[in-house]
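We store sequence with structure; for instance:
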Amino acid sequence: MIFNMKKIVYVLKSFAVKAGTERVMSDKMNYLADHGYSVTLFTYEQGEHSLAFPLHPSIRHIDLGTRFFLVEKYGYLKRFYMMAKMRHRFRNRLQTILNEIQPDILITTTYSIKLIDIILSVKTTACRLVESHVACYTVKKSFDYRNKPLLRSLAVWYDRIMLGKVTQADSLITLTQGDADDWRHYTSNVIVIPNPVTYIPETISSHDGCEHRIICVGRLHEQKGFDMLIEAFALISDQCPEWKIDIYGEGSCKDMLEKRIDHYNLCGRININNPTCNIYDEYQSSDFFVLSSRYEGFALVLIEAMSCGIPCVAFRCKYGPEDIIEDGKNGLLADNGNVKDLADKMLWIIKHREKRLLMGEQARKDIHKYELNTIMTKWHELFESLMNQRQ
């Protein structure tokens, strides 16, 4: 199906990190470009970094050259001045290019919440959309200062103002129902469209249990909870001596995690590997997947792993796992943040081979509702609906 030609602009902080959000955005942009849309990607902190994932040849990329993180090196007074100056430059450059392109649709994400007032107030006839790729409460400045009462009270005031700006959007799109419910405190124009899985293998390996391998994928960041994963495996490692965990990811917590692995004498049992372009091969050679995140926007890795016929064990974190995993049918859910419960669920799935295989078979059946064509048709219908309302 080729859709009617429409001009669509994405405004992203950067497109430089090989992570889940960037992969999803590239999949969506490439699909739209391949189905009749004229797509332009604006970044504002890309710098000289190469693009994280290949984009369709027709997609135009423009970096606005407003690297806001550079102002952090200044003292408070100069930082305030430089930030105001940078915001002014950002607005002017964005407005100039939008005037040239005259897009039908303008999309940004909640990762740009600090600039949302500018992005949603520039002069354009385009429909304005905001995508939420992470739990609403983690976007709030008060979340950053959750352990600092005085600063948190100021941050609550800031959040009320900044998050309230999303009311200027024609629609705010979340990945899960739980996140949608949170955002409805700020705007009524909320709909749910989950992330798509780009690739579903036509055939999969037998997963007969001989690998004795658990796979985990994600940034080495506090959010992903790999520290809790290590603690959970330490509780059961003596009861499953043939089993190991392979983590695929990179990030600032790598040294801390390696020290924790060493502390529990699990070197060789838990391995941290660099990200790979062939992650589906790694899913195929694993018995099940574990998601130990403290919070999520959706957890695309769950449906990727499930597409390869392996079940998943995950915390009931906000948000994503409960929308994807049907507890006891295609995977297992552990109480949020409960390391002992996560360990118990991992040990159960290790010990129950036949049920693990049945869960994997069910998981592969259940992910077809996330196929790219199905999800992108929902996006096209949203675009058409919003533009028809403008006429």
